[in-house]
Amino acid sequence: MTNIWHEMTALDLGSQIERGEIDPVELTTAFLERIADHDPDGEIYVRTTGERALGEAQAAALRARNGTRRSPLDGVPISWKDLFDTKGIATEAGAKILEGRIPEDDAECLKRATRAGLVCLGKTNMPDVAFSGLGNNAWTGTGANPFDKTVKRVPGGSSSGAALSVVHGLAAAGIGSDTAGSVRIPSAWCGLTGLKTTHGLISLEGTVPLSPSQDTVGPLTRDVADANMITAILAGTAPADLRGATLNGTRILRATTVFNDLVDPDIQAGIDRGLEKLSRAGATIVEGPVPVFQEVLDRCAEQGTPANIEGNVLWAAMARQNPDGMFGPIARRFFAADEFSAPGIVGLYMSLKDFTRRYLQETAGFDLVVGATVPEAPPALAPLYEDEELYLKAALMSISLTRLANLLGLCATSLPAGFVGGFPIGMMLMAPPFQEGKLLRLSKAAEQALAS
């Protein structure tokens, strides 16, 4: 086995497959062996799909020899969060109440990936039905955050296994979902790149839902170029042209509303150092308020969030019928939506489009709105199981900044922006709905600047 395969980007692996330097079957076998060696307890992968993966790799190898590759990522092995349906293979979304659930078909986005030649390595761990930004799962165990060797800390969620599969070299990329930050949070806490796509860009058909009006599909990767190519494949669109990406002439708003109140001062200092690099690369950085950020959070505090409301409709009855089938604090978060009034819920949904309109007005003239992805370092895992109030406080902290993009319908990336106290921090870049192309080009330029 070539020792650096597990450290390479998906596009670099694809390029070597194209040149005949890597055989997809050998590559897939190497990843499956690494999974067996590095994840014996199944805290990252809840199940691998070895037979499927090797069959897909064999077909990719034949296409590579014949010069009929389907995409630049044909033959590259990736992981899938365990809420994406896989035909004939259990998809349980991290919940005991769904134990033994076996779909009859693949999720639509997995079908698109398979048609492009990507190899499905298996299904990655997650909290019950994706309702936690911390990433812990009481049933399957929780993979540790890789940046603390002394205390087991959460990796971030809910795409926890997806992030860990990439950072440990157990997949070239991971596919996750993001309802309030579930791609960006683990990307930030694990030092990866994450993309929250605009709701509706990538099909949700065949995914286990949490909040159908908020759920989105997105990649967790080693760099922006991989995120760009994978998103294009899953969405059925052309990838953005990242060549010559630059920040020259770009206006960036460093949001103060909410962010100044919540972000740890040391993390904010790290973000500011990153923004200085973006400034040196040609961007104009302006600090200023975005009042609608606070207003949308205040409205949700009064009338509920879509994830609470829709999750209550989808899962509360099942959780009550089977009290041992869902992690208690998650179930009780769903039950809390019983107290929301019908007029309040209707009012919330009516207000969201107006909030988005106001966001666009308040940020007009800026190419990006930027801030920290997560306000604090990842907490230790054990105390979260001992104190439910502490768990709920930590869970809200984890999504406190990322959920803004979901509630306002934006697209957003999280980019590695250095380390604070030994932990990676993420810089979140937000753009208006369906401006993924522009967001990815500017994220590529920002990535280059942050690495300088």
Report on this model:
- With 452 residues, this protein is of the alpha/beta class.
- The protein has helices at residues 10-18, 24-38, 50-66, 108-115, 160-167, 184-190, 224-235, 259-262, 265-280, 291-303, 306-321, 328-335, 342-362, 382-386, 388-399, 403-407, 436-450, and strands spanning 45-48, 77-81, 119-124, 174-177, 193-196, 217-221, 251-255, 284-288, 368-372, 411-420, 423-431.
- It has a domain at 5-235: Amidase signature (AS) enzymes (Alpha-Beta Complex), CATH 3.90.1300.
- It has 17 helices and 11 strands.
- The radius of gyration is 21 Å and the shape is globular.
- It starts with 9 loop residues before the first helix and ends with a helix.
- 55% of the residues are buried.
Condensed summary:
The protein has helices at residues 10-18, 24-38, 50-66, 108-115, 160-167, 184-190, 224-235, 259-262, 265-280, 291-303, 306-321, 328-335, 342-362, 382-386, 388-399, 403-407, 436-450, and strands at 45-48, 77-81, 119-124, 174-177, 193-196, 217-221, 251-255, 284-288, 368-372, 411-420, 423-431.
Keywords:
452 residues, alpha/beta, Amidase signature (AS) enzymes, 14% strand, globular
Q: What is the topology, as strand order, of the major beta sheet?
A: 1-3-2-4-6-5-10-11-9-7-8
Q: In terms of per-residue confidence, which ranges show pLDDT below 50 for 5 or more consecutive residues?
A: none
The major sheet is characterized as: 11 strands, mixed
Number of helices: 17
Helical coverage, percent range: 40-55%
What integer is the average pLDDT?
A: 97
Protein name: Amidase
InterPro entries: Amidase, Amidase_dom, AS_sf
Domain Amidase: 26-440
Organism: Sneathiella chinensis
